Amino acid sequence: MNHKPWQSIFDTYKIHEHDFSQSPFVITATQIKRATAHFTTTTEREVRVLCKQDTRESRPQVFVDNDLFILPIKNGIYTILQGEGYIDMPETVTEVKCYESKLDFELETSRIGNSEMQHLDFAYASSLIRSFLQDESLVLTIRGRKYTPKFEFLAGKHNQLISAQSVQTEVDAGYEGRNQIVLIEAKNTSTKNTIIRQLYYPFRQWQIHTKKKVNILFFEKRKNIYLLWEFGFAEPNNYNSIELLKSAKFEIKT
Q1: Which residues, listed in sequence order, are joined to residue 19 by a DSSP beta bridge?
Q2: pLDDT one-digit tens code per residue, 202-220
Q3: Any bridge partners for residue 219, and if so which?
Q4: Tens digit of pLDDT for each residue in 67-83?
Q5: What gap in Å lies between CA 116 and CA 124, rounded to an integer?
Q6: What are the pLDDT digits (tens) for 108-143?
Q7: Going edge to edge, which strands form the sheet with 68-74?
Q8: Under DSSP, is residue 254 helix (H, G, I), strand (E, B) or coil?
Q9: How far is CA 188 from the centre of its chain?
Q10: Three-class SS of residue 157?
Q11: Contact (CB, 8 A) for 148 and 166
Q12: Most buried by CB count within 10 Å: which residue of 6, 27, 154, 210?
């Protein structure tokens, strides 16, 4: 979990002494590299790896002990915040629904491999995504990495606005319909919790690019079951205002 490199970073810049009740702590990739230069392995020195803390459990101990999480705010610049940076994936308590694919033939290629993308593509091709959102107009228009325009937001226990700009985001799939944009984060394993950033940054990004409503889905495949959660943000400029709108789980019959 990169405990030792982050301990070195905290010691080098006296982050333990920082008053997080007053403000987050901003740190650059250059500073991180400088504080970890004496480590021998790439994973202990690579900034991208050190700052990838996508679940609560993947945080270094110094973050856990001090109730901290980290967010990118610009290319090569990060902010360390105090408070809640993650959301627990709500248990989908409804019964599994049997969903009949709208395709009139079987997709043989969907059986090859076991990737998040192929399971998501199969769910879309079967019209499960359209049916879940009750929008037959949705078509695939977004995929891959993009950079955010400038936006400001509140996060964690801090009362001052945080500014982010030119942060790289990636959605597993994005769909546009007549009246909405749908962005999906997909996983191929059972997810207990996830960093809100993966949902919030693309949400804010596409809010700026379009006047259509932006919806966020979290998608997961467990064995033969497809799970979908729809999230929204009660206050668009508040990272922690995330809320579950609906969820369901399906078995697709071809």
Answers
A1: none
A2: 999 999 999 999 999 999 9
A3: 186, 228
A4: 999 999 999 999 999 99
A5: 12
A6: 887 777 788 899 999 999 999 999 999 999 999 999
A7: 25-28, 77-82, 68-74
A8: coil
A9: 14
A10: coil
A11: yes
A12: 6
